Amino acid sequence: MIRSGMKWMFLIVGTMIGAGYASGRELWQFFGHDSGLAILLFTILFSICCYVILSISYEKQSQHYLPVLRTIVGKHLTLLYDGMILLYLFTTTVIMLAGSGATWQAFHFSYWVGILAIAIPLVLVFVWDIKGILSMNSFILPLLIGGLLYVLILFTVQQELSIFAHLGEQKNWTAAFPFTALNILPLIAVLGAVGNQMKVKGEIWIASIGSGMILGTISFIYNNSLIQISEDILLYEIPLFAILKHYPYEMFLFISVLLWIAIFTTAASGMLGLITRFRKRFTGPMWLLALLTLMLMAPLTSFGFSTLIKYLYPLYGLLNLYVLSSLLLYPLTNRYKSQ
């Protein structure tokens, strides 16, 4: 049970820790100063949401997210949110492909070599169906989490910072709600695809509490580090590099590899949500569906998606507040219905 619960825990963390989170940009955009209570609230809200999504997925024994989504938002809003999820997963995965191309370009490789470097393993990981994704996450997520914590703790120790210096800052507590809401759609998409893989309810507790604790801890330490270099963050597109400016080139290389892994895990989660959604209409293996989807995405990587993100993400954050409230109220409303 513990081992199975950890599989889902790593799947959740892999979905959440994308390049935006790992780079520090997403955290700084929502949190920053006065966010001690906000991060604590996020940890609690996130764990509750994961528990509810996994519970519904387990009860429905779902193979894709649609039955879970219908339970959460009701049949009248399912079409709207289904479209939002598909658009979110598609655009996010395209952005991750483009991000891989840009990362390899930084090391003087061709942009398309960078695209192939992520596309080929994305197809290969689906040769083993959903088990391939779970095995991959169980292997590379501890490396990603460990590497990120190593850099942040090293910075904290070397700068002689107090991890709990900003614990009492609470003014920005409301940031917990839009930050949690923004990350709900991909969670529904991914966790809705594994309902038929879960055996006992105990796995759900391990996955939801474990993932919340991991992400809450990393977020708190990371945000605390970013506060110390807040004046430099404006000069860096990737805030994490502001932390590393006094470190040797080897550390920069190490972090670049970590960020690429974060890009890969996000792309893999996005692909899982997409291809499980259409799997019943496609008779071929998952890897072939993954290949066809990537071929459709590849030409779009040459377009700039910054405008799309600029308007799309705030819209998601707003519309997802309804999903967030539905998830938080679900244990109460469901109990009322069952009586």
Question: Going by CATH, what is the homologous superfamily?
Answer: Hydantoin permease
CATH architecture label name: Orthogonal Bundle
Low-pLDDT runs of 5+ residues are none
**How much β-strand is present in the residues?**
under 5%
Order of helices and strands: HHHHHHHHHHHHHHHH
Q: How is the CATH topology named? A: Hydantoin permease
Q: Supply the CATH class.
A: Mainly Alpha
How many domain units?
Answer: 1
The biggest sheet amounts to: none
Question: Distance N terminus to C terminus?
Answer: 30 Å
Number of helices: 16
Instruction: Kindly report the average pLDDT value.
Output: 81
Structure classification = mainly alpha
Roughly what percent helix? over 70%
Give the C-alpha Rg. Answer: 19 Å
- Note the overall shape: globular
Q: List how many beta strands DSSP finds.
A: 0
Transmembrane segments: 38-58, 79-103, 109-127, 139-157, 177-195, 204-222, 251-275, 287-305, 311-332
Organism: Pontibacillus marinus BH030004 = DSM 16465
Protein name: Membrane protein
Keywords: Membrane, Transmembrane, Transmembrane helix
